[in-house]
Specification:
Length: 209
Amino acid sequence: MSLVGKKAPIVNAPAVINGEEIVENFSLDQYIGKKEVMFFFYPKDFTFVCPTEIHAFQEKLEEFEKRGVAVVGASCDTEETHLAWLMTDKDKGGISGVTYPLVADPSKTVASNFGVLAGDWAYDEEGNLEFDGAPVAFRGTFFIDKEGVVRHETINDLPLGRNIDEMLRIVDAWHHVEKHGEVCPANWEEGKTAMNATREGVAEYLSAN
């Protein structure tokens, strides 16, 4: 079930902030009324596609911050594993240099609440409880506005890395809608023409493009 248009689920979990400090009760509520949030899940620390995405978000962090957007990552690893990975050099597969928060979700509660857990608990034929599927998060991305409402979500399967520039485009589109009251058509980018959400507006846009 999509979370778009709904309040984002509560996040209250340990996290590593500033690349080096563990905090026990990290919450997205700290951004309400202050910043939007690009909250993304990745499958697992010390893997292969994941560090490319994490570094890509770091490389674009200044662009997100210029737009008033906080970037926060999360996986089902522990905070200690996050910290160990953050302390590992980039040339050894680590994510040293990443400064935005990484939420730890070993209970898988946050991933489950956001609908990105790649499996679930189930009973086998003998009545034993076991995990069916992969006990990690899909590559879910959620753009949350200043009121805590989800405005965009995408969920990729485990092998499919994200396009971080597309996340910035989503932010720009939302800001354009808020500022101008126009809607953003297919392939819209900052600086391109948007349109009024009326029949006349659509006809005018299509005839011009």
